[in-house]
Structure prediction request, 319 residues.
Amino acid sequence: MLNFIYWPISAILWFWHKVVSLVLSPDSGWAWVIAIVLLTFTIRAFLVKPMLNQMRSMRKMQELQPLMAEIKKKYPKDQQKQMEETRKLQKEMGVNPIAGCLPALVQMPVFIGLFHVLRSFNRTGTGKTQLGLSVEQNRNTANYIFSPDDVQSFLDARIFGVPISSYISMPKEMYEAFKPVDFTKTDIMMVAVPLIILIVLATHFNARLSVNRQERRKAAGLQKAPANDQMAMQANMMNRMMLWFLPATIIFTGALWHIGLLFYMVSNNIWTFFQQRWIFAKIDAEEAAEIEAKKEAKRASAPLPGQRPNNPKRKGGKK
Prediction:
């Protein structure tokens, strides 16, 4: 059903594994983990420009708030007219709200695709969405772009002594796919739990960086506070979700995530850490330059000392 996602994700992972295998053994757990990290960075690199455009669009939307409020005031009972005038205003200012959603819309399918591809290296389970293959069948069945040899390489690879597609809640009967079974659930937890904690903390602090920036901008008068109590409540709720709810979901769902997927999340947060700082600095510099340009234009149009202001309304008055 989602093959249009699974095939590209598996192809990118396959490509980076082949590249890394030029340096490391292809059966090494680190070769597979580094390939997952490079897949993450590849996807995120393509999203840098859309993310930058999203931030610019969000800043322009804040500047448009007073004009949008005037539209609502002008057409209080005509929703259709409000929408038309709002779209017209957004077009004039070069704002595209839909484009701002692109980074989030892309990252979720990548997460789902990688989750499925990693899970599909071990298809010996008999539960829902599992194929119930025998150990021998599983080792000799391709996984999307990965050949049976690649599947065997992945199953035999270990990172800190555990398979890359193992996970805390994995049924013990599925351990047989990773022969020899030289690990236990405790071994998996010893690798997965520190990664989960790291992801939770990184997600929280990356969100806090964004929230703190919002507060600094409000204090500096660069961003308007919510217009009413209801909007303020909604903003606070969104911030709490970013800071606490999203990290908390990782704690409860981490037991379902493969070790490889946990490394994806760690590398994704590392990229976010540096990307946010770069984008925020760039956007703030652009905003400061625009403010300075407006001040300079205002100074240039102001009358010189001792010069009377040019007031067209007084022309034709008393002589």
User: Anything to note?
Assistant: The first strand starts at residue 158 and ends at 159.
